[in-house]
Amino acid sequence: MLAFLMFGFGGIELVGMAAAEAKDPEKTIPKAINQVVPRILIFYVGSMIILLSLVPWNQLNFGGLDKSPFVMVFSMIGIAWAAHLVVYL
């Protein structure tokens, strides 16, 4: 599953294009690939940790799967304009 996330995050064709234009591809491409996993953890898992630090997990409405968790949290903490911004983006 992590491989699917990595390719979905960066795209397989971007690796080839970056390797063709890199100054030292033998060094920089493995370094960039190794940095993908921490970035996935920061952006995906980190955002969920931040959301759950704002609102306890037992107060989230998991029955409404048609809503984004970001929209639910912003609505629950009283920042309605941010919820609309998330929907727009």
UniProtKB/TrEMBL annotation:
Major localization listed first in the record, in broad terms: membrane
Listed InterPro entries: AA-permease/SLC12A_dom
Coiled coil: none
Top-rank taxon: Eukaryota
GO annotation, cellular component aspect: plasma membrane
Keywords: Amino-acid transport, Cell membrane, Membrane, Signal, Transmembrane, Transmembrane helix, Transport
Spans traversing the lipid bilayer: 36-57, 69-88
Localization terms from the record: Cell membrane
Key word Transport present: yes
Keyword Transport assigned: yes
Leader sequence residues: 1-20
Example GO biological process: amino acid transport
Residue ranges of domain Amino acid permease/ SLC12A in the record: 1-87
Membrane disposition: Multi-pass membrane protein
Matching PANTHER family: AROMATIC AMINO ACID TRANSPORT PROTEIN AROP (PTHR43495:SF4), GABA PERMEASE (PTHR43495)
Protein's name according to its UniProt entry: Amino acid permease/ SLC12A domain-containing protein
Organism: Oppiella nova
Lineage, top ranks: Eukaryota, Metazoa, Ecdysozoa, Arthropoda, Chelicerata
